[in-house]
Amino acid sequence: MAVIAVVVGFVVLGQSPASGPDTTPTGNQAVPATVLAAVTNPRPQVLATVGDGRVTNPLHRLPAGPVQTGADGKPLLLYIGADYCPYCAAERWSLVVALSRFGTFSNLHLMTSSSTDVFPDTNTFTFAGSSYSSPYLDFQAVETETRDRQVLQTPDATQQHLFETYDAPPYTTVAGGIPFLDLGNQLVAVSSGYSPGLLQGMTWAQIAAQLGTAASSQAQAILGNANWLTAGICQITRNQPAAVCTAAPIPGLEAQLGGSSR
User: Fold this and answer.
1) Contact 227, 47 (CB under 8 A)
2) What is the pLDDT of residues 30-67, one digit of tens each?
3) Are 12 and 176 in contact (CB under 8 A)?
């Protein structure tokens, strides 16, 4: 039976438990073909069957205004996280699924969250060093710190402004939480849509294998959260591509988000 997945917390950027360097193997290798296929191309029937996966809507609507765009004029989806962060680790599984419906990742690598944080050693991916191409949106990812809390990437002025403006009350209870997602200044998400605990003790291959079974707890959480993110992205792309934004369960979830596809 599927479990109800809920947001249980987040990491506050700049705060961490005291620890020395984390020397546990991190992955940091190219994603194996079988894992990449599972996470970038889950079966449409499974996505439809999962629906919202009993994931509570993780997106919060911002005040009405124009869609934020990137340098190329396409709607902007900004992600700010860090390699050490277990909630970022969980969210990346869903985000890769969702974004792969709108474009293509290159040079995606494996990563493991910190062994000294909560939900230690959560297997995931890193956006550091990767690239993403889409005709529909501009995805910008900033991984601020490595697995052992060393500086990795720094937001530019625009990214930092969005982070400071919308990763703060009243849009979240505590300022500076990661992972942070800004979908075109229309919707934001802070923290993961489900608990990283669902991935504890599982290899990348084991997690990926569960995505083929709609009833599995991991598929419900990862794909249910990904469906919510997909619905949010459809709102900022004016429901393009139609093949994605009209596929079950996206129209129903998009309706629940409110607002309009400007």
Assistant:
1) yes
2) 999 999 999 999 999 999 999 999 999 999 999 999 99
3) yes
Burial, 242: exposed, middle or buried (Cβ in 10 Å; 0-12, 13-18, 19+)?
A: exposed
28 within domain boundaries: yes
Q: DSSP string of 50-115?
A: HTTTT-----EEPPS-PPPB-TTSSBEEEEEE-TT-HHHHHHHHHHHHHHTTTSEEES-EEEE--S
**Number of domains observed in the structure of the chain:** 1
Residues in the chain: 262
pLDDT in tens, 71-80: 889 999 999 9
Classify residue 5: in a domain, yes or no.
no
Give the integer Cα–Cα distance in Å for 5 and 26: 26
3-state secondary structure of 175: coil
Q: Which residue type sits at 133?
A: S
Q: Give the rounded percent of residues in the chain with a pLDDT score beyond 90.
A: 85
The β-bridge relationship of strands 138-143 and 76-81 is: parallel
Asked whether residue 8 is domain-assigned, the answer is no
Chain centroid to CA 66: 23
Mean pLDDT of 6-23: 47
